[in-house]
Amino acid sequence: RSIYLVVFDCTKDIERDDSRLEYWLQQINSLARNRPPILLVGTHRDQRNESTVAKVLSSVESKYRKPWCG
């Protein structure tokens, strides 16, 4: 059993530049069996204001939680 950690940069525009995040989620789900646990971690949070970070995290959660993370 494995736990996967996918790290993304909170300073990037996730709506425009999400291909790498989606690529890794696809790779994990294609290679692993039985929907493994995937932890998404946003880095560089300290370089953005709280409202921007909240928007990025909300966007990531709404876009990826159900289809990729169960």
Overview features:
single chain, 70 residues, alpha+beta, two-stranded parallel ribbon, 2 strands, 17% strand
Describe this structure in words.
This protein has 70 residues and is α+β, with helices and mostly antiparallel strands. The protein is 47% helix and 17% strand. It contains 2 helices and 2 strands; from the N terminus they run E-H-E-H. It has helices at 19-31, 50-69, and strands at residues 4-9, 38-43. The chain has a two-stranded parallel ribbon with strand order 1-2. Helix 1 links the parallel strand 1 (4-9) and strand 2 (38-43). It starts with a strand and ends with a helix. The model has no long low-confidence stretch (mean pLDDT 79).
Summarize this, please?
By secondary structure, the protein is of the alpha+beta class. The protein has helices at 19-31, 50-69, and strands at residues 4-9, 38-43.
Architecture blueprint of SSEs:
Elements: E1 4-9, H1 19-31, E2 38-43, H2 50-69
Parallel strand pairs: 1-2
User: Any idea what the radius of gyration is?
Assistant: 12 Å
Q: Strand order within the widest sheet?
A: 1-2
User: Can you count the beta strands?
Assistant: 2
Low-confidence stretches: none
| Secondary-structure element order, N to C | EHEH
| Class based on secondary structure composition and strand pairing | alpha+beta
Counting DSSP H or I runs of 4 or more residues, the number of helices is: 2
Whole-Å distance between the termini?
Answer: 16 Å
Quaternary state of this entry equals single chain
Helical residues, percent = 40-55%
Q: Quick check: average pLDDT?
A: 79
Overall geometric form: elongated
> Could you describe the largest sheet, including whether it forms a barrel?
2 strands, parallel
Estimated share of beta-strand residues: 15-25%
